[in-house]
Amino acid sequence: MLPSNMRSYLGRYRQIATVLIGHGLGDLIGILGLQRFASLHWRLLGRSGRAEERPTRPERVRMALEELGVTFIKLGQVLSSRGDLLPQEYQAELVKLQDAAPPIPVEIVRELVAAELGQPIEEVFFTFDPTPLAAASIGQAHAATLRDGTEVVIKVRRPDAVDQVETDLRILHSLANAASRRWDLASQYDVVGLTHEFSQTLRSELDYLREARNIERIAANFADSPDLHIPKVFWQTTTSSLLTLERIRGIKINDLEALNQAGIDRSALAQRLSETVLKMVFEDGFFHADPHPGNFFVEPAGKLGLIDFGMVGVIDRRTQEQLIDLFVAVTRQDMDQLVDALMDLGVTSQRVNSDLLRADISRLFYQYYDRPMEEIGLTALLNEVLSIARRHYLRLPSNLALLIKTLMMVEGIAKQLDPALNQTAVIIPYARHLMRQRLSPRRVARRLGESSLDLAWLSIELPRRLRRLISEVERGQLEVRIRPSGFDEIIRRLDRLANRIVLGIIVAAMIIGLAILLATYNPLGWAGLQAIMFFIGVISTAVIGAYLAWRVFRSGRG
């Protein structure tokens, strides 16, 4: 009898296969290695269910992810921001994925809080609202007050969330490995690495202690800012599955009528929102990566309140400088610098033709030739650049993909607040200002100091390394290894062709050998055995021949 956890895994594999087939995505079964979990009817006939329904393929992908639950919903939400991986029609559909779930019964919430804090909820909180403020697939939020009357929000993680996510992540890693072996495009885009990155992101969302540390880091970065209100963390009532935060009240940032009635300057608010996010990215290197309208509140004085810090992005100093170079290249319409910046930022598993990449970028900027860069929409420009990156198999690191998604979402909110504001017009002056700072005497002196340390180390180590190299040459121990690239697919094809030739030779040899044996070797009394041998030989030859024909037919090559 199979252990319960193994039965759970197998059942989840079958569920994934059933959902894919049910939504007309049966072609993914072979790519993901799920054939043995598919129904016998599908394996025999190769038909997908729901033929009477005719939604588009992106819609069917979205519906399948929704049906598969929390992990796959989160995966779709992450992929919705990956213009370097998916066409816009898939991104637009995956954006619709809603992370909602039935509320946890209040009795279970009380038990969870009591188990985490070691005492009943009534002894910790003065009031507790049993009606949740929000219910998502990972956890849900309740309003409460502390014993001193401070208004707070309690986030409680669902009791089964961790086990379900861990099961799904192990399965996703298995499916990613299978896809990399069966589908060249999956290998080129390193879906195994992407799955690993996604796993880290999702596990961090499950840990409320990590979210609390994210909050305090951003709060420290904006400690002197009068424009942003970050909620306070109450550590005495915070654990890995329970988070207690100061409650922020205000007008939702996309409630334009309420903002107008409150006398809020929407144009100034849009400018402040954009500058706040740019500071997070280019100065702090640590930014809120899920800036949808539900996470922003506008307080009476026009101050921005920000919540939900489960997803954040990190940009190191080198990447910050590369991004500044990218934006400066865009403003100058310097194609060579832009190609270099894209190739520095992008990741690819194969050689990139920089001339073709430059030609594509030149065609892009030709569309905007007579328009100032400040008038070009950021989202439209980024989508075009991502489309070019996708054609050349440039896969952006996950932190840059998060950044692009963040900039696009912020532009969408800013456009709602002030249709006349162009995000590009905010970013370009900011990038130029940072470029001037980077070239300031103080910054140059600091970089020269850092470089002098590297140069000093090199001056000490270089003679020693050269001496070792010369010694290896004199002893004949120097080896030069050349690793050719671009021949992998040719080698695989030759290998398949050689296997088929060998198999064909074996079949032919069996047929000839069987014929010679039956023609020359006829011992007395073996007539019956001869017939049996002939029958077995014919059947074996037919089976091997049929297998060879099936392999050739399946590959589509002779």
What is the structure about, briefly put?
The chain is α+β, with helices and mostly antiparallel strands and 558 residues long.
How would the blueprint of this fold be written?
Blueprint: H1 4-22, H2 27-32, H3 40-45, H4 57-68, H5 70-79, H6 88-94, H7 106-117, H8 121-124, E1 125-128, E2 134-135, E3 139-146, E4 151-157, H9 161-182, H10 184-188, H11 191-206, H12 208-221, E5 228-229, E6 242-246, E7 251-252, H13 256-261, H14 266-284, E8 286-288, E9 296-298, E10 304-306, E11 312-314, H15 317-332, H16 335-345, H17 354-367, H18 378-391, H19 398-417, H20 423-438, H21 441-475, H22 488-520, H23 527-555
Parallel strand pairs: 5-10
Antiparallel strand pairs: 1-3, 2-3, 3-4, 4-6, 7-9, 8-11, 9-10
Helix pairs in contact: 1-4, 4-5, 4-6, 9-11, 14-19, 14-20, 15-16, 15-20, 16-17, 17-18, 22-23
